[in-house]
Amino acid sequence: MSDVVLMCSAINEIDLSAAETLEQINKRLKEMGIRLHLSEVKEPVMDRLCRAHFLSDLTGQIFQAQYDAFTVLSPDAVAGDQAKPVMS
């Protein structure tokens, strides 16, 4: 495994303790050679993460949609999925 994507659509707000926990998770994953990515981050949460300087240390990317993360991080899986017919 080389990537973990945290889907944040259900997170409406984040406090300093949660931001620190994310920093620790990011650091531990980095030590294991795994990148942490975020998807579907709401604006108030993004603002708080920026103020906590979390984003400057984030090892991965931020995606608008979970599907975007999947297509960027697993292009072969998506290409194979598109090649299959929906109905036969």
Automatic annotation (TrEMBL):
Q: Which residues form the STAS domain?
A: 1-73
Question: SUPFAM superfamilies from the xrefs?
Answer: SpoIIaa-like (SSF52091)
Name the InterPro entries for this protein: STAS_dom (IPR002645), STAS_dom_sf (IPR036513)
Q: Tell me what this protein is called.
A: Sulfate permease
What organism is this sequence from? Roseovarius mucosus DSM 17069
Lineage at the top is: Bacteria, Pseudomonadati, Pseudomonadota, Alphaproteobacteria, Rhodobacterales
